Amino acid sequence: MPIITEEQFKQFIDDSKWLQRNYNKLIKEFNLEYIAIRNHKVVAHHKEMNEFERELKQSNIAILDVVVEFIRDKRNEV
Amino acid sequence: MHIECYQCFNDKRYYVPAYVFSKRLDFVLKINFLVDTGSSTTLLSWNEVPYATLKTNLKEHRVLTGTGGSFKAFILPECSLFFYANNGIHNLAVGDLGLSNYLTVDGRLCPAVPSVLGIDILNNFDISYSDDLERLFLTQSEKH
User: Fold this and answer.
1) Residue B78: which domain range?
2) I want to staple A46 with a disulfide (CB 3.0 to 4.6 A). Which of A51, A65, B66, B75 is the partner?
3) Do B9 and A4 count as a contact with CB atoms less than 8 A apart?
4) Are B84 and A10 a contacting pair at CB < 8 A?
């Protein structure tokens, strides 16, 4: 079983809520890009997943320390 | 015990954050699942899973169909979901989960879609909506 602390989970929830609230603003800047969010900030972004993962690695950011989203306009999804 | 779901300001749908843990593959993912009673099965979407972190050859699951076409899914074996509930972290063993391929069976790129928490898992909860809070809740009674 993984060790997930309450603090880590609260950060995950908090950044997820921030993502949902600010989605429309993020579309304007990062449409069709992968973004990583930590503490209400976009800390990495790229159009290609491989490059995005490389960018995270180069910045010493663990994937589990960020919330990842592929930004797109979701209003036409069913 | 209840778990709060959050509305996205873009599509107005409700999402629930969860950690996905595969015991057999020994890895953890963070996913914001779309709460989707219209989906028969829970599925992780290819665009939300960093393939570099999997580091394994996944077995093929079954062929699933959406409005964008049919696609194969891979198996993430022996999974548990961890939700943040009002009384702390809630662990739910869910067995094998599917991960969608990025190509449809006829070779086209699948569009980016959210991972969905389908009715197979949502059946473990009562779903309620608070008009006052404008929030969706997944509730589980003590007997679970």
Assistant:
1) 2-139
2) A51
3) no
4) yes
* CB interface of A with B, residues 20-49, below 8 Å: 20-24, 27, 49
Sign, Cα dihedral of A5, A8, A14, A19 = negative
Contact assessment for residue B107 and residue B22, using Cβ atoms and an 8 Å cutoff? no
Whether the CB of B102 is below 8 Å from some CB of chain A: the reply is no
CB B96 within 8 A of CB B137: no
Q: Which residue of B has its CA nearest to A72?
A: B112
- What is the value of ipTM here, to two decimals? 0.92
**pLDDT tens readout for residues A13-62:** 999 999 999 999 999 999 999 999 999 999 999 999 889 999 999 999 99
Q: How confident is the model at residue B10 (pLDDT cuts 50, 70, 90)?
A: very high
Q: Residue with structure tokens 């930590």?
A: A38
Q: What is the CATH number of the domain that holds B38?
A: 2.40.70.10
